[in-house]
Amino acid sequence: MKYNIAVVPGDGIGPEVVGEAIKVLNAIGQKYNHQFNYTTVLAGGAAIDEYGECLPEATVEACKNSDAVLLGAVGGPKWDHVPGPQRPERALLGLRKALGLYANLRPAMIFQELADASPLKPSILDGGLDILIVRELTGGIYFGEHVTESGEDGSVTAYDVEKYSDYEIQRIARTAFEMASKRNGRVTSVDKANVLDSSRLWRKIVGEMSSDYGNVELDNMYVDNAAMQLIRDPKHFDVIVTGNMFGDILSDEASQITGSIGMLPSASLGTGNPGLFEPIHGSAPDIAGKDIVNPTACILSAAMMLRYSFGMAEEADAIENAVNKVLDKGLRTADNMSEGCTCLGCTAMGDAILAEI
Predict the structure, then answer these.
(1) I need a surface site. Which of 155, 249, 282, 351 has the fewest CB within 10 A?
(2) Does the annotation count 238 as an active-site position?
(3) Is 192 designated active site?
(4) What one-character DSSP code corresponds to residue 139?
(5) Annotated catalytic, 213?
(6) Which one is catalytic: 67, 130, 252, 291?
(7) CA end-to-end span of the chain, whole Å?
(8) What is the pLDDT at residue 317?
(9) What are phi and psi of 246, to 5 degrees?
(10) CA distance 334 to 351
(11) Which pTM value belongs to this model?
């Protein structure tokens, strides 16, 4: 089988981690008789430097014409002077919108070999942790009306609109229920229905959707309580579904309780469109080009690509199992080092995972 992948290396450490992920994908292709064809395009700061804009139309078209998109990271202080609408990070919003990617899947997993890196007590994490956060990506306050206005008395007022329609809630809820039905059968819907009309609609629609999934248990939780329970009792959660802003905050919190942001991948999916797969870490320009960054999150993002865009469960398992074997051998990058382990650079860690495949 042949698959076309648009590759967006991006900025900072992006090109380094994407390079290692492509090495792994090529090994999978060779082992399982697949052919992956890559088209490299620019977005973020690299595109600003080359074309004067963060998301050139040629990049959008290449991504639309691909089977999936693999992205490294965008942004950095070099472009802090760029006006807001053209900042590197806006490229991500633009790609998500152009590709119709409304569902962000972000796993928060504890690798047993790295459990001591978590800030949580061992008693809380005993037996591991595996949470999937399903965040709505194209609605809510980030895409609502944004207004800053000055009064006649010289005062300044700003407001942002949180807005959701029923169909937006239905499709993200369906994604969450489908995911939960293949996992442990529990969905926690997070909102602020005691205060916000948008959340009351969210809770109503999610509740109605749950009747189509009799094998999945649904519970509702206010976002402030959910933030607390992620620390106090993270094993309560299987799949969390929530809106754009709440998901942005909770997914970052969940990534930190794993103690290893360099290990966590993500997927952004739509309906019948190419998915976008990227590690959750940023561009980390301070360590770019030093061959010390952890490539594992990007490699695991490639595994999510195989699983969710190409339907290659066995191939995705092969990558994830290889990562576990490398960790079992005590091989680490600098961000995950502990006593008795061997520290590897970015390239060497990629090679170690490659060898297990």
Answers:
(1) 155
(2) no
(3) yes
(4) S
(5) no
(6) 252
(7) 19
(8) 97
(9) -60, -40
(10) 16
(11) 0.90
Work out the average pLDDT over 205-226.
97
Answer yes or no: 67 catalytic: no
At residue 6, the pLDDT reads 98
- Of 130, 248, 291, 351, the active-site residue reads 248
Amino acid occupying residue 248:
D
Q: Looking at 38, 51, 142, 222, which residue is catalytic?
A: 142
Nearest to 350 by CA among 289, 298, 311: 298
Query: Which residues partner with 266 through β-bridges?
Result: 278
Q: How far apart are CA 346 and CA 254, in angstroms?
A: 24
Show the beta-strand stretches assigned E in 11-110. Answer: 35-40, 68-73, 103-109
Under the banding of pLDDT at 50, 70 and 90, the label for residue 98 is very high
Dist. CA 314–CA 334, nearest whole Å: 30
Q: Has residue 207 got a pLDDT over 80?
A: yes
224, 233, 286, 328: which is the annotated catalytic residue?
Answer: 224
Is 224 part of the annotated catalytic residue set? yes
Which amino acid would we find at residue 54? Answer: C
